[in-house]
Each structure stands twice: as C-alpha cells, then as structure tokens.
Write a structure and sequence with these properties.
The complex is a heterodimer of chains A (250) and B (411).
Chain A: E1 2-11, E2 14-24, E3 29-33, H1 40-48, E4 53-62, E5 65-66, H2 72-77, E6 80-83, E7 90-94, H3 95-109, H4 117-130, H5 136-139, E8 141-142, H6 148-162, E9 166-170, H7 178-189, E10 197-201, H8 205-210, E11 215-220, E12 223-228, H9 231-239
Parallel strand pairs in A: 3-10, 3-11, 6-9, 9-10
Antiparallel strand pairs in A: 1-2, 1-4, 4-5, 7-8, 11-12
Helix pairs in contact in A: 6-7
Chain B: H1 2-18, H2 34-37, E1 42-43, E2 63-68, E3 71-72, E4 87-90, H3 91-97, H4 99-105, H5 116-123, E5 128-133, E6 143-149, E7 156-158, E8 161-166, E9 171-180, E10 187-197, E11 202-210, E12 215-225, E13 230-237, E14 242-251, E15 257-266, E16 271-280, E17 286-295, E18 300-309, E19 317-326, E20 332-341, E21 347-355, H6 359-366, H7 372-388, H8 394-410
Parallel strand pairs in B: 1-7, 2-6, 5-8, 6-9, 7-10, 8-10, 9-11, 10-12, 11-13, 12-14, 13-15, 14-16, 15-17, 16-18, 17-19, 18-20, 19-21
Antiparallel strand pairs in B: 2-3, 4-5
Helix pairs in contact in B: 1-5, 3-4, 6-7, 7-8
Classes of the chains: A alpha/beta (250), B alpha/beta (411).
The structure holds adenosine-5'-triphosphate (ATP) and magnesium ion (MG).
Chain lengths: 250, 411
C-alpha cells in the first residue's frame, strides 16, 4: 500500500530525514518509536502533504501513485489520514461545519453522494457517542477551548467519519486518560482490516498493548535504526534509546 | 425657511473656503480624495425608483423608507404601524409637517465648521430621513432605510441627511442599506447623520454599504449619548471605489455606553476608511470598538480610531481593536489607533493587528479533504463572522453574514 524509499527531507537548509525506507502492506499495523526530535512528526507531515518540508531525495508511492505529487486534500480523498500530534484550533468555525464540509468534500472526490444536514448530524452523533464525546462538542469551534484529550478524540472522530485507508496516528495517546485511551484504541481498532493499514507513532508501549502492531521501528537521527515485532516496543520501554547513540540525559 | 437658508448659505461659503480635504491634513493622511475632487459631479435631480418594491433589500418586516439619489420615494416605501408619536419619514416632508422639531435638531450635532464634507452636505440639504421617537416609546420592529444610487452617464452627487432623535427612555432599531441600482458613471453620496440618544434611550444602528465600483461614499456621523444611553452601531462595507465612515460619538451623560463595530471586505482598487472618535466627556462611560478588514487585490484599508477621555470622565472603560487580514501582497492597511487620556481612574486599551490566513489552520482543513479555495473561504467567513456576532439583532446578523459570505464569490 505504502512504499517509502530512501526518503530524505529538510526544513529550510536543515536535513531532518536522512534515508527512510519503509514498506507497509494492506492489513498491517506499523509502529514507529523514537526519541524526541528524531523526525517522526516530520515524516507524518510529509506523508500528509504539509508545506515547508523539502523532499531532497527518495520517493513515496501510495497504491502505485506518487503520493508526494498530490495536494493534501487529494491525499485525504484517496484515504490518507493523519491524526495530528497537535490538533489545530480554528476559531469561528464550528466543529459540525468543519466535519460536514470535510466529509462531503471527501465523498465528492470519491464519487459518493453528499450528505444533507440531517443525514450528517445523525452520523456525527452516532460516532460521537461511540467515542464518548458529547453533541455539544459539535457546536463548539474546532478544538477551541478543548482539553488536550478532547482534541485528540476530536481527531479520532474525524478519522471515524472520513473512513481512511491509511491512518497515521502521531502520538494520539499523549494527553489521553486511561479510559479515553481505551475508547480511542477501540475506535482505531474498528478501522483495522485487510484493506487498511496504519502507522502508529508513539512513545509508549501502553498504546501498543491496545493497538497491537505487526511491526515496530525505531526512528533516530532521521533514519530507521532497527525494526522488529511487537516485542521490540517492550524492549525499548525497558532499555531506552541508548543503544542507538542517543544520550538519554539530553 | 430662513433658518435653513442661513444654515445652507453659511456652509456653502464655508465649503468654498475649505475645499475637499487633502492628504496633507492629518485626518485625511491615508485617504486621497483627488479622484473625487477631480470629477465634475452634478447635483442629482429628484428621481423616482424604477424598481419593484419586493426586489429591495429588507431583512425583516419593517417600516421601510426608500431613497433614490438621496430623495425620499414614497411610492416604493412601505409603512408599518408605528407607535403613537413616532415619526419616520423623509426629511423634506417632515420639515413641512413638523418644522419646529427639525429646526430644534438639524445641525445641532454636526456643526464642526472645519469639516469639509459635512459643510458640503449641509450646504445642499434637500432631503433625507428623520426618525423621532417620543419619550419612553419602544419601537419593536426595525426601521429600514434603503438608499439607492443610480445614474448612467453623467457623474451625479447627492447629500442626504439623517436625523435621529430618541427621547429619554425610548428605543429603536435602524437598518441602513446603501446600494446602487445599476452600473455606470461615478456617483458621490455624501451623507451626514445626526444621532441624539436621550437619557436611558437605546439605539441599534446597522449599516451595510454595497454601492457600485465607480461610487464614492462619504458618511459623517455625529452622535450624542445622554446619561445611561446605549448605542450599538455596526458598519458592513463591501462596495464603492472609495468609502469613508467617519463617526464621532460624544458620551455626554454619565454611564453612557457605546458599542461600535464593523467589518469591511474590499478588493481590486477599493479603499475603505473607518475613522472614529469616541469622546468620553463624563464619568462611568464605556465604549467598545472592534473593526475587522479583509483586504484582497490592491485594495486598501484605513483605520483611524481615537478614544478621548476628558478630565471629568473618571471610571471610563474604553476599548478599541482594529484587525486586518491581508489576502494578497498588494493589499494594505493603514491603522492609527490613538488614546488621549486626561483622567487617571480609567481602563482603556487599543490595538491594531495585521495578518494573513493561518497556515496551520489551512493545512488542517486541507488534510481533511477540503480544497484550498474552500478552506480559505471557511477561514475568511470565520474571521468576519466573529465581528458580525457583535450584532445583537439576529435577523440583521444573519443577513450581514450572508452578504459577507456572498462577497467571496463575487470576486
Ligand atoms: N518548521 C520547523 N522549523 C525548524 N525546525 C523544525 C521544523 N519542524 C521540525 N523541525 C526540527 O526537526 C526535528 C524533527 O522534528 P519532529 O517534530 O519531526 O520530531 P519528533 O520525532 O516528532 O519529536 P517528538 O517526539 O518530540 O514529537 C526537530 O529537531 C525539530 O526541531
Ligand atoms: Mg512529534
């Protein structure tokens, strides 16, 4: 589904990713762990299409298509979804307007019929309920005044509505309480399936005991330093990143 | 009427001395009237609207007065049943019916002898609108003024006068639509409004201006708020090649409150100037101003806002903020917020911010499948709606939101 080959990327003049190779098949869940500043969010932004990152070498192919050539909205329509490490606040735009606009934009691009206000509200309320969110959060401005955990849940609500094929979760677990973590993990797991894949970025083994990965990768210094099965996460939790040359005191 | 002739004549000679303001004058530093002064405008003759009444804008059932090139057109106006004693009609007609009332108020608030556009208006007083609400009377439904400009070939000018008198304890809602009927030669609407808000009276005053691209629109408002009076004003500017809303409010009585806000959305070569002076003359007054501009193309926004707190105006609460969203490299805003404070026990603030669309928000929207144009629209609407939300009268709020939203598609 996703082929990342020798990906090099910079912010300004500064190289951040220095040769990432990663292949994700449909049905697989991959986890990426790694120290702060190693380039995990950078990778997720590049996959989602954010401006400001220059790909200096390598390629990203998604279902046979050059992903990097598509604008962000096309990537979303073809099924790429990024749950942000820091979901953005948008004052003045109500959450329901945002969700409805997004859902219908995606449906239009996928050749599906748009939902009217009533159909949308019914769907949104049902998804909210599943995620333990109140309807009131649909009326409020997007993420404005939401707690850290509420913002993360709101991103997962968007995921649930947009029905992605490739989901990238960038530290979705940070800021979630234990109950919320389980609810969010259930939401994510319900999207697992033979035609879908996931890339889960996290610092903690705890999330991976709910969303059990098929593969775990260690990203440090802009490269994947080691890959393994789910047991690698346990090992990292116990030993840290010292063996990859990361000074833990720093 | 001799008093009126005297008023006109004095101002005619005053304007002859003053001429149109030049950018060398501090108050007109950013707004160049050269093109206006250089156009050979002819005074518009009394005209009749060739419009169907149902095509005229109205946000709600109301008492509606329609003006064409500044002249009241009874045939296309619509009357509502008004409470006893309320006068809402054309200035010329009201002058005939209630000469003493008009004489008592006309020219009493707008009397700045150094203000050229105001002198020019007064020199030409012919018609306009009058709203008079007697003591303690509340007019529940709004009064709408539809000011239509028209004229195809030769540049026409008109100088409408609006006189609003709210006696103590009364309340009214006034909505002004300024628009052009058609396209054509330059027009010059030079309005002056006098707003006398009596003790504990409440005036809600909403204005939208969407005149054609060749229009010049100057508006000078002089208002006076007595003890405990409340004034809520909103200005939505979408049209005209050059427009200036100049508003001076004197909080003359203790505890008066003024809320003045507005949004302007301009593009191309448009210029929109908002110039305010809130004069806190006595204690316990409060004023709040928020203006937001969306400026595209090579358009220009001007904001000059001054808060004056006089020595007697202790316990004043006065706040003012100008914000502008620049959508293109050639768009510009000149903002000059000013505080002049002569009392020590006051809370005052002012500020001006300028920015472009938030990149993070743009990316967030696009990452959810929303294309770039739609994402921009959503963010612009959100930006503008934040200030439109200041309008307390819901039908106007909704109508203005729709007009602002339609602006984006008109480009
Ligand atoms: N816009 C930017 N300008 C400058 N430096 C940037 C920018 N974006 C990322 N970087 C730098 O790139 C490096 C990688 O950042 P990134 O956010 O990808 O790390 P991360 O692995 O997600 O870290 P964390 O675990 O703390 O979330 C960091 O050193 C960061 O400071
Ligand atoms: Mg990160």
């Amino acid at each position: 589904m996703l082929e990342i080959v020798n990906l090099h990327a910079s912010v300004g003049d500064r190289p951040i990713l220095k040769g990432i190779d990663l292949s994700i098949k449909a049905g697989d869940v991959h986890a990426i762990m790694g120290p702060n500043g190693s380039g995990k969010s950078t990778l997720s932004y590049i996959l989602a299409g954010r401006d400001g990152y220059t790909v200096t070498d390598g390629s990203v192919t998604y279902n046979g298509e050059d992903l990097l050539a598509l604008p962000p909205e096309r990537r979303a329509a073809t099924g790429v979804f990024l749950a942000f490490q820091y979901p953005v606040e948008i004052p003045g735009v109500s959450n329901s307007t945002f969700l409805k606009t997004a859902l219908n934009a995606v449906r239009r691009q996928r050749g599906e019929s748009e939902l009217d206000a009533i159909q949308f509200l019914k769907l949104a309320r049902a998804k909210c309920k599943q995620l333990g969110m109140t309807d009131e959060m649909l009326k409020r401005a997007v993420n404005v005044g939401f707690s850290g955990g509420e913002k993360k849940r709101n991103d997962i609500l968007q995921m649930a509505l947009l029905d992605p094929k490739l989901t990238i979760l960038d530290e979705t677990d940070s800021g979630l309480d234990i109950d919320a973590l389980r609810i969010v993990a259930d939401g994510v797991n319900s999207l697992r399936g033979p035609n879908r894949a996931m890339l889960v970025i996290t610092h903690y083994q705890r999330l991976l005991s709910y969303i059990v990965p098929d593969y775990v990768h260690v990203l440090a210094f802009g490269r994947i330093q080691r890959s393994g099965g789910k047991e690698l996460a346990l090992e990292l939790e116990a030993r840290g990143y010292a063996e990859f040359g990361v000074n833990e005191a720093a | 009427m001799t008093w009126l002739d005297t008023l006109r004549n004095t101002n005619r000679s005053r304007f002859a001395e003053l001429g149109f303001p030049k950018t060398g004058q501090e108050a007109w530093r950013f707004t160049n009237l050269g093109a206006l002064a250089g156009t050979p405008f002819q005074p518009a003759p009394p005209a009749f609207a060739k419009v169907a009444i149902e095509t005229l804008p109205s946000v709600t059932p109301s008492h509606r007065l329609v003006f064409v090139n500044g002249f009241f057109c009874a045939n296309v106006s619509a009357s509502d049943i008004l409470p006893e004693g309320v006068i809402a009609g054309g200035l010329a007609a009201t002058l005939n019916q209630h000469p003493a009332l008009i004489e008592a108020h006309l020219g009493k608030l707008a009397h700045d002898t150094n203000h050229a556009p105001q002198a020019l208006n007064t020199a030409h007083i012919a018609d306009g609108a009058v709203l008079y609400v007697p003591k303690g009377v509340r007019v529940a439904r709004p009064i709408e003024l539809v000011w239509i400009g028209t004229g195809a070939n030769e540049p026409l000018s008109w100088h409408p006068r609006l006189l609003v008198v709210l006696e103590p304890g009364s309340e009214a809602t006034l909505i002004e639509h300024h628009l052009s009927l058609d396209d054509g030669a330059a027009t010059f609407a030079n309005g002056v409004s006098e707003l006398a808000v009596g003790a504990h009276a409440r005036l809600h005053h909403y204005k939208v201006q969407r005149e054609r691209n060749s229009a010049f629109h100057l508006s000078t408002v002089a208002g006076r708020l007595e003890q405990g009076a409340y004034y809520e004003g909103f200005l939505l500017t979408l049209g005209a090649k050059l427009s200036r809303n100049e508003i001076k409010l004197v909080l003359a009585g203790p505890g008066a409150e003024a809320k003045l806000s507005g949004a302007y959305l301009v593009r191309g070569q448009q210029l929109c100037d908002t110039t305010t002076l809130i004069d806190h003359a006595t204690a316990h007054g409060s004023s709040q101003q928020l203006f937001k501009g969306v400026i595209d193309g090579a358009a220009q926004g001007v904001f000059q806002g001054k808060i004056l707190v006089r020595p007697d105006a202790q316990k004043t609460n006065a706040h003012q903020l100008s914000r502008a969203l620049l959508l293109s490299d050639d768009a510009r805003i000149d903002a000059k917020p000013e505080l002049e404070i002569h009392a020590d026990d006051v809370k005052c603030s002012h500020g001006a911010t300028t920015g472009d669309l938030d990149d993070d928000a743009m990316f967030y929207l696009r990452a959810r499948g929303i294309d770039q144009d739609s994402a921009r629209s959503l963010l612009i609407d959100a930006y503008v709606n934040e200030v439109i939300a200041e309008i307390t009268f819901e039908p106007v709020r909704e109508a203005f939101e729709a007009l602002a939203s339609a602006w984006r598609y008109a480009g």
